[in-house]
Specification:
The protein is α+β, with helices and mostly antiparallel strands. About 30% of the residues lie in helices and about 20% in strands. The chain has one domain: DD-peptidase/beta-lactamase superfamily (Beta-lactamase, 3-Layer(aba) Sandwich).
Length: about 400
């Protein structure tokens, strides 16, 4: 039986409609870099696997953002090497100092509501002198605590150390005058947390849920360990591959207790990039340069050694985020480090592009420079200051 050509036309048209989604997916199988060039998803995945193998990284999670939206999420390797359990997009991972970026976002909501003044001395929000509060007795003989503001805490200029337990006697003391210079300090963020909880009459756990995680749909993120994480969580690994005992934190700490997933944190990054939950003024205040960073390294003995290495990119700190200038406009970033964990995130405002990397390996930061360059085309990130020295680096 001969079928008329006219009768075939609707069938052909219908077939083409069915093919359109496949064609669209094929076209989207590339990522546009900052300079406009493109890299295929297949090439990205080959690159990640090759680098992980070379640097002995057991697990790595990647999220790419385009047009201020989550464009791509992929996980590689294992969340538990011994049990051969795969790292997945919903695997709970230790966020480390990603916690600080979420806290800064939360604080800026209080600022825009008029509940907190960035430049009002923090002690004025308290009902008793700071040295009378538990854990702050060490400051009783140094009244410079009266100078500390929320802006100083968020820009890491309180003069307090990163953590008191790093000190030989484990006592809290000022290393620099408040406001004098950049000096990364988890202690400063913890002090601000006390004030925020006093102002709101709510704990950070509740504030995080109400103001960030629930509104953004971050269903597997919390400032403390949750029972739901038990079903799917990652174990951290040191440089030699030794597993780090999983710490299931039960105290919410603004500076670093958060557990999250690559899916949830990419969602948070997209929200920040879009300005969700913040007025344009508050968002701009958060990610603008507020204090210059003229030092060789973020941590360690070089953290106070002056240099001009990052002068060209105008390396600085905003409110809870590091910032720099690139050939493609301003960028803001936040990283997170701990034994067995390495995380990095960066967003380029003008280009509306970003990248989030999370890993359960202390070796992962040795891959960050190459991943940023080859996936995003980011050659401006201050990798030496971040100590993101490549595993195969032989230069100076």
């Amino acid at each position: 039986m001969r079928i008329r050509t006219q009768a075939l036309k609707p069938l052909v048209a219908f077939g083409l409609l069915l093919l359109l989604p496949l064609i669209s997916q094929a076209q989207k199988a590339t990522i546009q870099r900052l300079d406009g060039s493109r890299i295929s998803v297949q090439k990205i995945e080959q690159l990640v696997l090759a680098l992980m193998d070379s640097a002995k990284v057991p697990g790595l999670a990647l999220a790419i953002l385009e047009d201020n939206k989550v464009r791509y999420v992929k996980t590689f390797g294992y969340r538990n090497v011994q049990k051969r359990l795969p790292l997945e997009p919903q695997t709970a991972m230790y966020a480390a100092s990603f916690s600080k970026a979420v806290f800064a976002y939360l604080v800026m909501q209080l600022v825009q509501e008029g509940a907190l003044d960035l430049d009002k001395p923090l002690y004025q929000y308290l009902d008793k002198p700071l040295p009378e509060i538990k854990d702050y007795q060490d400051l009783a003989t140094d009244e410079r605590w009266k100078q500390i503001t929320a802006r100083m805490a968020l820009t890491h200029t309180t003069g307090l150390p990163n953590w008191r337990w790093i000190e030989p006697d484990e006592k809290l003391r000022f290393r620099f005058a408040p406001g004098a210079q950049y000096w990364y300090s988890g202690e400063g963020l913890q002090l601000l947390q006390i004030v925020v909880e006093k102002i709101t009459r709510k704990g950070l756990l509740q504030l995080g849920e109400e103001r960030v995680f629930k509104p953004l749909g971050m269903t597997r993120t919390s400032y403390i360990w949750q029972p739901t994480f038990e079903q799917n969580y990652a174990i951290g690994y040191m440089e030699d591959g030794k597993a780090v005992p999983k710490e299931k934190r039960d105290e919410a700490q603004a500076a670093g207790s958060m557990e999250t997933t690559i899916t949830d944190y990419a969602t948070f990054m997209a929200a920040v990039m879009q300005g969700k939950g913040l007025t344009p003024k508050a968002k701009q205040e958060m990610v603008r340069a507020q204090v210059a960073i003229p030092f060789k390294a973020q941590f360690g003995p070089l953290a106070t050694v002056s240099t001009d290495e990052n002068k060209a990119i105008k390396l600085a700190y905003g409110l809870g985020w590091g910032v720099f200038e690139s050939p493609y406009g301003p960028a803001y970033f936040k990283e997170g480090h701990d034994d067995g964990w390495e995380n990095h995130s960066v967003a380029f405002s003008d280009q509306k592009k970003g990248l989030v990397i999370m890993s359960n390996s202390s070796n992962a930061d040795k891959l960050f420079k190459e991943l940023l360059e080859k996936i995003l085309g980011d050659t401006a990130t201050p990798w030496r200051w971040e100590n993101y020295v490549p595993y195969n680096y032989s230069g100076k």
